[in-house]
Amino acid sequence: xxxxxxxxxxxxxxxxxxxxTSLQDYKLAWKINQVFKIELKLENDLExxxxxxxxxxxxxxxxxxxxxKIDLIKNKGIDNEKLAYLAKxxxxxxYFLLIEGEDYFLKTNEVVQxxxxxxxxxxxxxxxxxxxxSRDNFIF
Length: 140
Hints:
The structure is a single chain. Strand 3 (46-49) and strand 4 form a beta hairpin. This protein is α+β, with helices and mostly antiparallel strands. The protein is built from three helices and ten strands; from the N terminus they run βαββββββββααβ. A six-stranded antiparallel beta sheet has the order 2-5-6-9-1-10, covered by helices on one side. A two-stranded antiparallel sheet has the order 3-4. A two-stranded antiparallel ribbon has the order 7-8. The longest helix has 12 residues, at 25-36.
């Protein structure tokens, strides 16, 4: 019997901003809350199924309204007691800020500019998920 392969291209429906900082996740969430006047709150850890049956566990902060959702997700996590990354090709990024429904929140350029105003953040970049091999990891 011949095998058939179904190749689906799933698009990430969120703006993804990469953040480089030495801040702990709770301190970064607090700083972001101050700048954007929101309330990112610690949620249950995200468990992402990886290849070969492995699971990646990441800390996750979330803020949601009727019009938009913001997630602050750590890039580095634990997979079978080993360090693993949500986006392997972006190991230098510490956190990702995912913004769904960004038209109701702010334009992504404004988000990047306001994040750059936080002194403890070393680098901020809008991530083009279409160029990432691990883009499927951003679909929750």
